[in-house]
Amino acid sequence: MNIPQNLKYTKTHEWIRVEDNKAIVGITDFAQHEITDIVHVELPEIGRTVKKDSPVAVIESVKSAFDIYAPVSGKVVAVNDNVLSNPELVNQSPYEQGYLFTIELSDKTELNSLLDAQAYQTIV
Amino acid sequence: MEKLLNEMSSQCKPAYSVNLDVEYDYQITENLKRNSYLGLPNIAESDLLRHFINLSRQNYALSTTFYPLGSCTMKYNPLINERIAKFNEFNAIHPYQAQETMQGILEIIYKLEKDLCEISGLDYFSVQPAAGSHGEFTGLLVISKYFKSIKQKRTRIIIPDSAHGTNPASAALAGFDIIPFKSELDGSLSIEKLKEILTPEVAAVMLTVPNTLGVFEKSVLEISKIVHDNGSLLYYDGANLNAVMGIIRPGDMGFDVMHINLHKTFSTPHGGGGPGAGPIGVKAFLEPFLPVPRVELKKSKYILNYKKSKSIGKIKSFFGNFSVLLKAYVYIKSLGSVGLKNVSEQAVLNANYMLAKLKNIIDVPAGGKCMHEFVLSPKSVLKNSVRTLDVAKRLLDYGYYAPTVYFPAIVEEAIMIEPTETESKETLDKFIEVLIKIILEESNKCPQKVKDAPVNTPVKRLNEVEAARNPILKW
């Protein structure tokens, strides 16, 4: 199972990469494996304000539909349009080409509640 | 694969000959005459007959094979239901007939409602809703209208993750906000956690009892108390009523509203998109809100009452799917109270027999006892990255309809089995043997065979991603 050291994680299997005051969000390798082949992705609107732990995106696979939660609060400033037309990118490259959206952080202290790679390893 | 009728058309000879002894176009003026081809398939009767018979031979059905589909309950439909439903007295009627000429139909609806009251412990039933989910929706509209009538603003519905999958959709459609409620590892609900989310905005808590893990909620009476102390109502999703008929009654446990999926408990046909029936039952204080028309008995005559000022209104044309209601009524009357109780006992016994034989081999997250269905999690015993989906596909090769997989979503690699009451020990033993063989032996020794399955079916493994994203449509 691929769990990059430089990322932060949630218990609900999202990863987040912090760059300045922005957080890039996707789902983990474990999550894409459990979700199985993805057929459809719904992303939040750019400009939408999201609250930590609230559902903001939907991933649908041949198995079921899954809510994706915002790991932090803030404003959605970018989404990865590529995964809309090529949802298999989330399966093939969950940490790079298959990222989902970028949030501008409204409260940096929320980052403290996220898991590091080691802690995430223990829950999967 | 059998070709479609339109594809067969060109290969067939002209399929009809019409001997006309009247001037058929006598009154049709030139400008109204069709001058293009009608576009209907051109097929001989013998080819048409073969087409449908060949298609029917590819059916998986309860009449051809064991069908252990958990949660969905593929239950044997006794032939007497069909025989009686074919009577002319039921077929040669029309819903626009005068009420006095269809007293028999109204009597059956009236008496079925009374029987459902007796079985469920609720005070009034409406058989209008056309499906279980439609029943949920109707029940939630009743709840919504009730709180409006007493001028309380309650906008939330609490739904455990072990509830039936349609609950959140029904509640959202009825205009409520959904508060998800995480169940414990064994599928039970924590009273403490419920208290935390049970705010004054909560209109109702929807419980599926037994839940989708096949577990009876032990704290149901305590839950009932704290929900009512909060001024909220308690909704019983009767999807799994087939496990408790004649043993406990939702009304006695404090439930205010419920629906019953007639196909799951009362042996009406299932699948194919309907027609179905999902009657709802309510306690007396909610009766004014039930949909119209209500079938009532006035001066020894059955009448349809449309004049109920507080009713949520009409939710289905005419008076529900009568032929389905009739079959449920026949089932109830042919089994009687002892027979119905026996159905639940046998269903629970069959499920526990299977679980007892499987629980030491495959993980069972909800423990070693169940109600009418149970959920396996074969993750730890499957080898060579064989997954539950592969196991399900491989079962098709052995001539079985696959059980429900990946539901409930709270169990990893879930396989959900519901044997129902009518299967023999021999049938169950054979299925268990095949399931163990696939999971333990084949996933270990010949994993590719399992991953390539099915190979004995009319079509091989389908590409489900392509089917969802780029379906090839024919007509």
How are the SSEs placed, and which strands pair?
The complex is a heterodimer of chains A (124) and B (475).
Chain A: E1 8-9, E2 14-19, E3 22-27, H1 29-35, E4 38-42, E5 49-50, E6 55-61, E7 65-69, E8 74-79, H2 82-85, H3 88-92, E9 101-105, H4 117-123
Antiparallel strand pairs in A: 1-2, 2-3, 3-9, 4-6, 5-8, 6-7, 8-9
Chain B: H1 5-9, H2 45-57, H3 79-85, H4 88-91, H5 103-120, E1 124-126, H6 132-149, E2 156-160, H7 167-173, E3 177-181, H8 191-197, E4 202-208, H9 220-229, E5 233-237, E6 257-259, H10 262-265, E7 280-282, E8 294-298, E9 301-305, H11 322-358, E10 374-376, H12 388-397, E11 404-405, E12 415-417, H13 425-445, H14 447-452, H15 464-469
Parallel strand pairs in B: 2-3, 2-4, 4-5, 5-6
Antiparallel strand pairs in B: 1-7, 6-7, 8-9, 10-12, 11-12
Folded structure, characterized:
- The complex is a heterodimer of chains A (124) and B (475).
- With 124 residues, chain A is α+β, with helices and mostly antiparallel strands.
- Chain A has one domain (8-106): OB fold (Dihydrolipoamide Acetyltransferase, E2P) (Beta Barrel), CATH 2.40.50.100.
- In chain A, 19% of the residues lie in helices and 35% in strands.
- Chain A is built from four helices and nine strands.
- In chain A, the strands form two sheets. A six-stranded antiparallel beta sheet of chain A has the order 1-2-3-9-8-5. A three-stranded antiparallel beta sheet of chain A has the order 4-6-7.
- The longest helix of chain A is centred in the first third of the chain and has 7 residues, at 29-35.
- The N and C termini of chain A lie close together (9 Å).
- The model of chain A has no long low-confidence stretch (mean pLDDT 95).
- With 475 residues, chain B is of the alpha/beta class.
- Chain B folds into three domains: 5-57, no CATH class; 79-335, Type I PLP-dependent aspartate aminotransferase-like (Major domain) (Aspartate Aminotransferase, domain 2, 3-Layer(aba) Sandwich); 342-469, Alpha-Beta Complex (Aspartate Aminotransferase, domain 1), CATH 3.90.1150.
- In chain B, α5 (103-120) runs parallel beside α11.
- Chain B is globular.
- Chain B starts with a helix and ends in a 6-residue tail after the last helix.
- The chains are: A alpha+beta (124), B alpha/beta (475).
- The A-B interface holds A 34, 36-40, 62-64, 87-88 and B 387, 389, 406-407, 409, 412, 464-465, 468-469.
